[in-house]
Amino acid sequence: MEIKNLTDIQNFNYGIEKIFDKAQDFLPINGTDYVELYVGNAKQAAHFYKTAFGFQSLAYCGLETGNREFCSYVVVQDKIRLVLTTPFNPDSEISDHIRRHGDGVKVIALWVDDARNAYEETTKRGAVGVMEPTVFEDKDGVVVKAAIKTYGDTIHMFVERKNYNGIFLPGFEKWESEYNPPSIGLKYIDHMVGNVDLGEMNKWADFYANVMGFANLVTFDDKDISTQYTALMSKVMTNGNGRIKFPINEPAAGIKKSQIEEYLDFYGGPGCQHIAVATDDIVFTISEMRKRGVEFLYVPGTYYDTVAERVGEIAEELEQLKSLGIMVDRDEDGYLLQIFTRPVEDRPTLFFEIIQRKGAKSFGKGNFQALFESIEAEQARRGTL
After folding, report:
1. How many Cβ atoms from other residues are within 10 Å of residue 192's Cβ?
2. What pTM did the predictor assign?
């Protein structure tokens, strides 16, 4: 069932548990295991995410651990693990990925209890295998990994680690570092958004439904997400326990080039547009990020003139939210607070969303207009609108 407005939620909730139970029959997922980015300089990228986003050193592999192909720095904050990988060989697949896409998400790793079963169930339903179930072992135990292809060059890696007690994965050692700035309160990955080509949204929504057993949580069309210049369409897919949510975006017809088209042009095809990370105190988190130099999309001051009328009573001080550029939206379950960074690299591709949910299960539909106008202003400055 597709939801196009909040009045549909009650109808959606009726029977959704049965849908989720069906999903769990063949592909139970415990959560996001890690996200791996291929980057031009992993050491410098790790320093950025530690300094600006409050991540801390966890694990490392590279020349010192016997890896002659690439190095990876793993940073962690609560349940979030980012793996930042740079190749040594200029002719490698990783180098080619960076040349075509710039820094970007390659692997969205999913934590499962049985990687072999996850691979078998998804490939027999039509997934293209990238890596058959493979055992990795060291003195700390055994990890089983397997991978399938998704949109663009992005892959899902199934990670089974129930028989492993090491710091991260076999082949990695603990990354000892004297420089570990304090956490800024990021907790876990709330959702990850994929941008796909025009006409491909339904294809990939069907992939998640039929191949991975996900359910269509909500659908936004070009009437929901549009301005006078640009528009997009989106379907949010969720797994059985609701811990994994993947919105899939495609461009819609508009007078000017949409943010999705800009992304596809500069990334060189479909890929992960943004990673939404959750916090329990967004005021603290954003205050710290701003102090550390993170840049955010500008929200017009007039946006806050109607927040109280539209959202109702909230615990936070509206003037403080305005000073930080944090947006607010409400659904029948509560409200949420959210803000979006500018792209975290020179290509206008990957960015981050910081979100705090106070009961709300939606995605900030009431903020779409202001958000899109802000993105369009950024595009105009870049000359890509």
Report:
1. 21
2. 0.90
